[in-house]
Amino acid sequence: MTRRVLLILGLLLLAAAWIGPLPRLARHAFAAHMGMHVLVVAAAAPLIAIGLAGGRCDPARRLPALFAPVPASVVELVVVWIWHAPALHHAARHSLPMLLLEQASYLAVGLLVWFSAFGGERRQMRERSAAGIAGLLLTSMHMTLLGVLLALADRPLYPHAPLAGGELTPLQDQQIGGVLMLVFGGSTYLAGGLYLLATLLREKPDAAPLR
């Protein structure tokens, strides 16, 4: 029952990110675009993955070789940083096909990382959890680094026309987006890694971690 609730909540957050006002605001507000990113990879993806983990719809059970936590985190690192290159970021904010591609890739790599850490067969959960800690902490570190770079930059990295009547400068807008990434993006993955670590420490070596 709890897993079903998490799955439904994750799908609702995904709908809020994509159907709500954020896509329209993101065209002129970097913070809104970053809000979409954070909602997808740090809220919707973990809830959906944990809601499906261990069940019939868990892809890590059927294709475990594709859901190795550390390689999955490296794939997410590459995808996230590529989309934050100024040219691709600008294209995603001003082209609907590019926005759809960007958001779909964010969801895909987010699910990849969270399924890698929390999914798979129960008899392999201890080993997967150990690797999952490393994968989630690596992701937390690179998202924290990205957030710090955006928040502390002394010039706008993503020039854009501000919202009509908006009081924020492009630099302030970017700094808010960096804080969102730093606070919500990095901390969610850190919390996931610490949860797996705590679970691992509570378990006997021959027992599978309870989820």
UniProtKB/TrEMBL annotation:
It is found in: Cell membrane. The chain crosses the membrane at residues 29-53, 65-84, 96-118, 130-153, 176-201. It is a multi-pass membrane protein. GO terms for cellular component: plasma membrane. The keyword Aminoacyl-tRNA synthetase does not apply. Keywords: Cell membrane, Membrane, Transmembrane, Transmembrane helix. Pfam families: Caa3_CtaG. InterPro entries: Caa3_assmbl_CtaG-rel. This is Putative membrane protein. The lineage of its organism: Bacteria, Pseudomonadati, Pseudomonadota, Gammaproteobacteria, Pseudomonadales.
